[in-house]
Amino acid sequence: MEQGLQTERVAILPIPTFQMLSFFLTVETLRVANRIAGKELYEWVVVSLDGGPVTASNGMSVAAQFPISNCPPASTAFVTAGYDIDTGRTKPVLDWVRRMHRHGSRLVGLDAGPFSLAEAGLLDGRRATLHWESLEAFREAYPDVHVTDEVFELSGDVATSPAGMATIDLILGLIAERHGTDLAEQVAVFLIHDRIRKGGDIQRSLSQRVLSMREPGVGRAIRMMEENLETPVSIGKIAKQAGMSERKLQRLFAIYFNQSPLDYYRTLRLERARQLVCQTNIPLVEISVSCGFESQSWFSRAYRQRYDISPSDHRQQYRRDFKSLSNRAPVPITTTGWDMGGYNFGS
Fold first, then answer.
1. Which residues form the HTH araC/xylS-type domain (predicted)?
2. pTM higher than 0.70
């Protein structure tokens, strides 16, 4: 592949017990982008606390080329962490995160990686997401961060993702942002990834799997909501189906989602409506009916309240913004203040 001036370097810092799947999906998605583009759009380097190998949660290790104290400049810097959250909040890691950010890198937190970004002060007042296992602990530790349960969040010069298969969606979003949606879609096809989820799609595992294990009744309630989007059923009937009182259902939803069952149900319907508005040509009146709204005016009011934009304007904006991504110039790598050391990191 030809080496171009616009090649972007990606630095990856795995914290011990990191998720191997998200690590490989990050590298492989970028590698496939290089292959399809026919040139080296991306190169990557792995760094660690001491320059030695890092062991993942599955017991396998990844070799690092550099210690973080000698990390080369990069346009994007990833922190991927798993169970060992405390190591990700130590001074060496936080110093590296702040240094990379100060020198122009976009910081990306995967899985529990957002703990490092939040501890470094990069997420205050921003939207962020992370793996469902860590959501509640994260909310408690960082009340100034707007925590969501979406598949990824792009917030300016920082990004977060719960990892797992959502890693592909995040990387495809970054590829689309830099090099156009056509390339991102070709990469998705190559990886047999049938639908590119956008920021805004929720982690289905949170509603369907996790609560089914922790609170089977809540899981049953959510499944009933999801199965009845077009013709909503009453919260009382949902509570009965879930095998609990309506009052208990209200309490559990407040604990897990910080909202009422009715608000959660409406959010599910609006999230489905948003997907149809942005990704299909279905008439808005049909979308309103298919998502359980009695009139288009009611649907439009609820949609605007949720997304701060009308359905028709959102559809136009989505198509306009999606098209404009392919016209964006790649972001240059900032090297000011760095010693390149003569290294060339290939794929």
1. 219-317
2. no
